[in-house]
Amino acid sequence: MPTLGPNRYGKAETRVVRVVRDGAVHHLKDLNVSVALAGEMDAVHLCGDNANVLPTDTVKNTVYAFAKEHGIDAAEEFGIRLARHFVTGQESIHRARVRIEEYAWERIGTAGSARHSFARRGQEVRTARIAYDGERWEVVSGLTGLTVLNTTDSEFRGYVKDRYTTLEETSDRVLATDVHARWRYGWSDDTRPVPDWQRAHAEARGHLLSAFAETYSRSLQQTLYQMGARVIERRPEIDEIRLSLPNKHHVLVDLEPFGLTNDNEVYVAADRPYGLIEATVLRDGAEPLIPTD
Amino acid sequence: MPTLGPNRYGKAETRVVRVVRDGAVHHLKDLNVSVALAGEMDAVHLCGDNANVLPTDTVKNTVYAFAKEHGIDAAEEFGIRLARHFVTGQESIHRARVRIEEYAWERIGTAGSARHSFARRGQEVRTARIAYDGERWEVVSGLTGLTVLNTTDSEFRGYVKDRYTTLEETSDRVLATDVHARWRYGWSDDTRPVPDWQRAHAEARGHLLSAFAETYSRSLQQTLYQMGARVIERRPEIDEIRLSLPNKHHVLVDLEPFGLTNDNEVYVAADRPYGLIEATVLRDGAEPLIPTD
Amino acid sequence: MPTLGPNRYGKAETRVVRVVRDGAVHHLKDLNVSVALAGEMDAVHLCGDNANVLPTDTVKNTVYAFAKEHGIDAAEEFGIRLARHFVTGQESIHRARVRIEEYAWERIGTAGSARHSFARRGQEVRTARIAYDGERWEVVSGLTGLTVLNTTDSEFRGYVKDRYTTLEETSDRVLATDVHARWRYGWSDDTRPVPDWQRAHAEARGHLLSAFAETYSRSLQQTLYQMGARVIERRPEIDEIRLSLPNKHHVLVDLEPFGLTNDNEVYVAADRPYGLIEATVLRDGAEPLIPTD
Amino acid sequence: MPTLGPNRYGKAETRVVRVVRDGAVHHLKDLNVSVALAGEMDAVHLCGDNANVLPTDTVKNTVYAFAKEHGIDAAEEFGIRLARHFVTGQESIHRARVRIEEYAWERIGTAGSARHSFARRGQEVRTARIAYDGERWEVVSGLTGLTVLNTTDSEFRGYVKDRYTTLEETSDRVLATDVHARWRYGWSDDTRPVPDWQRAHAEARGHLLSAFAETYSRSLQQTLYQMGARVIERRPEIDEIRLSLPNKHHVLVDLEPFGLTNDNEVYVAADRPYGLIEATVLRDGAEPLIPTD
To answer: Measured between CA atoms, how close is A108 to chain B, in angstroms?
Structure first.
């Protein structure tokens, strides 16, 4: 009989919105929570015996109940609470992984004193991934959908040329990417003080942006490393960061057939294909644990 | 032989990015331009005779060339220039419709004086649709992807109940929607002064937001009308506005099975189905011209 | 006070799956139903008075209840039943429009006699749009997501050249498109026999495919007209058809830099921009009623 | 200075369409190719020195040139050829990973003898992932977007109940999922005969479908294991398979408020949240190498 290998199950994409009403001033948290559980699951796979299976419907209910009972502050804290609950609450469950996407809202400014109106801030999504095996925590936070662009201070020269190379070197190009970043906190032990998740996230995000803007880039790899290194250098609570950066090519349009000169002014924003640059940057001595698929 | 009815052709989704370099301070415009042309096109449909067909590839080239030759200020102005070119430049083309999506970028703040780094502002998209038949202009501007939410001051009561009604009345619900707005300017004649497109757009957007926030809502229809009416009342250059507002249901979770009371605190953000409310609001005497499909 | 213009409301995207159990042989219908209602709706827009408003939640319930009470045969028939119910059942509702997407499933062949397993047939979606005002019916059926491609018998020559034209003529190109078709039935009167919706749809689809395949194309406009004309000529129950055909450009790759000749063998399947060709084809004397937006 | 961890770069989503013209009978292959390369890349990350970097533009060119020079038979074979080229062709590149999506087309039947017209077969995508380090091959094939549904022979009972459990047991439910399958071939060594990729894929797909249809399911985990085990048992060239199966919930609608009985006939096809069941099934003694993220 074939062997059962690594497996997990759970409820994905439970959408929970939590409102806190502080008089006329309301607060809003908007999350998408995915929980995956693993443990003694041979019987359910091999013979359909559900005796060790907490239903995924219950997982969903737990997310909503916890939103009420404990509120939602940082996504990381909410994920830790959920992961601990499943691993310590069910004997058959040995490991939990909670993934959270958080959508940001900002207040709509109005004349009166009422503060209950909000607008979604955009396409950027804050992410958190919490893993727990009953002993050790692994918290990886990050962001996706942060699109950035430099109109200059980017070149690409001195690369390998082979039989199939036609690209011309350039000393001034547009450099654009969608930042997909995940960083792992050194914290892994319940007995140690937890990081300030909100501040760490805001600061890491700021460092990514400023490193992108301030780096004179000879390649997207160099920019990537500078972005990652700045986070590692400035945030002691972060041991590892992995960046996945599509090179969103902006191609200079050839205007000569129309008797015009394109002096780095008019670009095609191309869809596909795109370069894809991925790398991990680590604190000295840290192990790379963020999955690279 | 079957008759040829209404027809048009053109190039859709030409992505153009235009950079202006003012010393170390750079400026960025990012558009998606779709052009549709109509005119004497019987021969190409009926016998494949292309003698009246300007290729869609040429339409694309024209977008890029105009970005260089004339720059891009307001999307509306750029669309007017393109529409005029096609209608006056080709005898066989009698009507042009230009649709533009504009993506907003904001500067990344950095320490130095360099000003060439940008981040995409989010999912909201500014839209413009310019139609021209050689005599009359129709300019419809708008926005999509503006997601807003009120945590209170919304009720839904006193509605019709029939055999299939199970919904309970509520006097305090979350009201959320993705604003899809299109407004038509009164301007239609080349001899009249054109509106200030940038200011009109910013102001209309602001009125939509504040009317949404400030309306005590007995139904999403009422909120919609208030939003539309405020734009018509405050912006004399706008004669008509059409709003399409999905009611993004936020369903209160039943926490009683867990011994908890949900005091308007925990909601499911539901995907489908959703209510869909659509209406046009008009200046007195104006005709509804924005298509309702 | 600004005037209320055209408006409607309803429930969009109610997803209903209907199973019929004929012993061990089961049957499956899978629809996405969107209902929009219009009528005496001034009070709800102007003052939030819901006395004429049947809740959209009730609309959803009705879809599910009708699936049980009446079953689902053709999507058109189901839509007609719903539209009639809302217009005749509520005095305040004068017009209904029902849009349906139908997803096709095919049986998974198995050894035994059981017939309860299905696989989704693909990305093609069957569409229907039923409008009713208490007297007159308008039924527009169609399809989207049918992607087709000819590897030869397509050319593009003899077109207009202006200052911005760089495209070279071609006598042998790949022609590919996603067929988006909507056809209107002549039937509009309850006293007349209704068409055989299932057969008409299958036949119209077949004619679109064969006309695409059999036309030697000098332009996509010509192919479009041939596709539409064949449906009008062969299906007497159909009076009008509108086709929207993106020209999914397949660009011949220049392999000369690598010392290779590209003899119409290797193509880039491009994303954007794309040509977009739209036209209506009509039975002689029929009016174009399908919206062109 | 922070350490550079695992990294790779390449060109993603190169869309190549290859036509073979066998007289009037044409053949079509339609791929989306993503290549990632790794090796001596410290200098480019740390100092922007591109001397070891083959441009991603060259990677794209190579895909097109190889499509001409070698044709495209099985996606796996094409990926192997590309991976070998990059690893053996550039000293600085030590590892290559090629990912391919293949889109299926079927012929449009026509009366004449011409055979150059095709329709896309649907949303199902065939996948292949080839990894090579100069010595060892790892080939993982699979599919995504295969949506299947059983209308009966599925129950869910006997599960754990805790404080947050409200789900009722069911002995007859709809079971539906989107099959996402990846299977790893035992072949890893150039000196051994390669599998028949086309036949292996077709057979594995067939086993997944028939196991899904023929399993009386007490849980989706059980169905998953049966699907995986059947592939391992019947295809000796496959050592490992990983399945990721969303439980696409079909919720029985409560029709009692309308005086109707829902005898397993009318369902809501729900979007979110969804159960997510993931597991690997292995040949005895095989190691789980397919990434689980």
So the answer is: 7
Task: For Cα atoms A47, A50, A53, give the angle at the middle one, nearest 5 degrees.
Answer: 130
CATH architecture for segment(s) C7-135: Roll (3.10)
User: Cβ of B165: how many Cβ atoms within 10 Å?
Assistant: 18
**Residue that is written with structure tokens 């998974």 in the block:** C108
CA atoms within 13 A on the CB side of A24: 5
CB contact under 8 A, C61 and D258: yes
H or E stretch covering B66: helix B56-70
- The amino acid present at C125, given as its one-letter code, is V
**Nearest CB to A116: which of B69, B124, B150?**
B150
Interface residues of A toward C, Cβ cutoff 8 Å, are 163-164, 166, 257-258, 271-272
Measured in whole angstroms, the distance separating CA A289 from the mean position of its chain's CA atoms is 15
Residue of chain A nearest B120, judged by CA positions: A147
Nearest chain B CA: its distance from C25 CA (Å): 30
Alpha-carbon torsion, ordered B4, B8, B9, B14, to 10 deg: -160
Among candidates A32, A135, A139, A43, which has minimal Cα distance to A87?
A135
Q: Cβ D222–A5 below 8 Å, yes or no?
A: no
**Residue A221 burial (CB count, 10 A):** 28
Nearest to B187 by CA among B127, B225, B102, B130: B130
Q: Is the pLDDT of residue D25 over 80?
A: yes
Among residues D181, D234, D199, D242, the alpha carbon closest in space to that of D76 is found at D199
How far is the alpha carbon of A162 from chain C, nearest alpha carbon, in Å?
10
Chain A neighbours (≥3 Cβ pairs under 8 A) are B, C, D
Which residue in the set C14, C276, C279 is minimally distant from B273, CB to CB? C14
For residue C186, the tally of other CB atoms under 10 A from its CB is: 16
Q: Where are the domains of chain B?
A: 7-135, 145-293
Write out pLDDT tens, residues A68-97. Answer: 999 999 999 999 999 999 999 999 999 999
pTM for the whole thing? 0.97
Residue A141 in contact with residue B243, Cβ under 8 Å?
no
Residue of D129, D126, D261, D90 whose CA lies nearest to D205: D126
In the predicted model, what is the mean pLDDT of residues A8-13? 98
DSSP labels, B175-234: EEEEEEEEEEES---TTSPPP-HHHHHHHHHHHHHHHHHH--BSSHHHHHHHHHHHHHHH
Output phi, psi for B216, to 5 deg: -80, 120
Place of tokens 């199966």: D245
State whether B167 and C58 contact (CB < 8 Å): yes
Torsion of CA B207, B213, B218, B221, to 10 degrees: 40
Judge whether residue A111 has pLDDT over 80: no
Nearest-CA distance B111 → chain C (Å): 37
C-alpha span between C100 and C123 (Å, rounded): 15
Contact C158 B224 (CB under 8 A): no
pLDDT tens per residue, range D125-149: 999 999 999 999 999 999 999 999 9
Q: How big is the B-C interface in CB pairs under 8 Å?
A: 272
Instruction: Indicate which residues of B carry an active-site annotation.
Output: 11, 56, 249
Please indicate whether, in this complex, the C-beta atoms of D217 and A45 are within 8 angstroms of each other: no
Interface touch B36/C5, C-beta < 8 Å: no
Helix/strand/coil for D202: helix
Q: Comparing D7-135 with D145-293, is the CATH topology the same? A: yes
CATH class of this structure's domain B145-293: alpha beta
Query: What distance in Å separates the CA atoms of residue C278 and residue C291, rounded to the nearest whole number?
Result: 12
H helix runs in C189-237, sequence order: 197-214, 220-234
pLDDT tens-place string over residues D264-286: 999 999 999 999 999 999 999 99
